[in-house]
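Q: Predict the bound structure with zinc ion.
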Amino acid sequence: MNHKTTAARLKEIVDSIASRGWCPATGGNFSARVDRDSCLITASGVDKMALKEEDFLIVDFTGKTHSASKKPSAETILHTTLYSLSEDIAAVLHTHTVSATVLSTHFLDRDSIVFCGYEMQKSLNGITTHEDTVKLPILDNNQNIPALAEQLKQRWKKDTFNYGFLVRGHGLYTWGNTLEEAKRHLEGIEFLLSCELNKMLLEVRQ
Ligand SMILES: [Zn+2]
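A: Predicted complex:
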C-alpha cells in the first residue's frame, strides 16, 4: 500500500473506533507502518471524531517528521518503540476507554490482567479456545514518555506481549500484523476488559 492508501484505510479504522467513544477528548493515537523505518501517525491534539487524512503525519523511528504545520502525538515514541521491537507489527492502536482505565487502576498490586473462559479470546491471533489463558501486561503510567518507552522495552524482554498492554489509569495499546488484525485485537481486548469490569460490578451487587 502507498502512503495515501494506508492513510485512507487507517482513517476508516480510526473513524470506526472513535464512533464507539473509545478516544474521548482528543485522547488516543493511531499509526500504521509505512516501511522498515517509518510510520503514519495521528497528529497531536486532533479530535478523532473529525479526522482528516492530513491529520496523519509520517515519522521515522527516531521520531523525526517533515511536517511543518503539525506535530506528532506525544506518545509517538511508544508506537515507534513497538515497531522497532517487532518487524511484524504493521499497525498500533491506542484507546482511552473506561474499562481499560478502571481495571488497570483497580488492580494496583498486579502487573497484568489474565483472561480465561471467554469465547472472545479467539479474536486474538493464535488463541483457538476459550480454555486458553490470555495475559495482558500492565505498565505503570508516566508523563515522561521516553521513560514509559524504556519501561516497555525492559518488560518486553521478560514478558509475553502478543497483542497489547495496558498503561495504568490511562488506556490500552494493541497492535497486529495488518491494520485489520490490529482492529480485531482492539475490539476483542476491549470486549474482554468490559466483561471483566461488568463481572466485578455484578459481584459487588450480590
Ligand atoms: Zn494515551
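A: The chain has five helices and eight strands.
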